[in-house]
Amino acid sequence: MTAPDAPDLLALLDRYERPLVRYACSIVGDLDSARDVVQETFIKLAQGGVREMTNHECGMPNSQNGTAPRAPHLEAWLFTVTRNRALDHQRKHRRIIPMPLPDNRPDGGPGPAATLERREAASSLFRLLDALSPNQREVIRLKFQNDLSYREIADVTQLSVTNVGFLLHTGLKKLRALLREQPLPDFDLPLRSTL
Question: Directed axis angle between helix 6-28 and helix 73-93, to 10°?
């Protein structure tokens, strides 16, 4: 398949926009900047940018006929390009911005009190994530926020699959220890839904 046509691009946008924005936001710390990064990623895809990617930028070989990668490589390509664009943005701006929590509450969902409790628990968990190393935070977010496999995380981060597994194991072990030290009411949500 060559660069996706308009209907395919819309389907890809529907499928990947939110996870990519959430991932970019975890790197740049600003929702608007994260949306700009993801927009650049999809512009690159729409322009057939996959065939222009070098092994250095993308971390995976280009197909020989210049076509976009097939799934599951497309997902890894999108996350890799988003990561590279976010890191470029971060280097360019060199400022620290606190990451706002996205509002993912659907209409008819929990009321304001439940939403506030959930945000406070998520905020507490994000503070605990800050105690981890940057590599541990990144692989945990890719695994639990975006449901990427170890192989896909390795493709995105340019780490070995073994290193990804080690970082996940040690990061989760440290999070568990930190969670045990926290008051119980702060963390009555399942860990996966909060990450």
Answer: 40
151-154: list long-range contacts, CB under 8 Å, 24+ apart.
152/72, 152/75, 152/76, 152/79
pLDDT digits (tens, 9 = 90+) for 72-113: 588 899 999 999 999 988 888 765 555 666 666 555 666 677
Task: List, for residues 43-75, the tens digit of each pLDDT value.
Answer: 988 887 555 444 434 444 444 444 444 555 888
DSSP state of 50: G
Query: In the numeric block, which tokens belong to residue 111?
Result: 């009321």
Of 129, 142, 143, which Cα lies nearest the Cα of 171?
129
- In this prediction the pTM is 0.55
Taking each continuous run of H as one helix and of E as one strand, the counts in the chain are: 9, 0
Give all domains of the chain, ordered by start, each with its CATH number: 6-93 (1.10.1740), 113-194 (1.10.10.10)
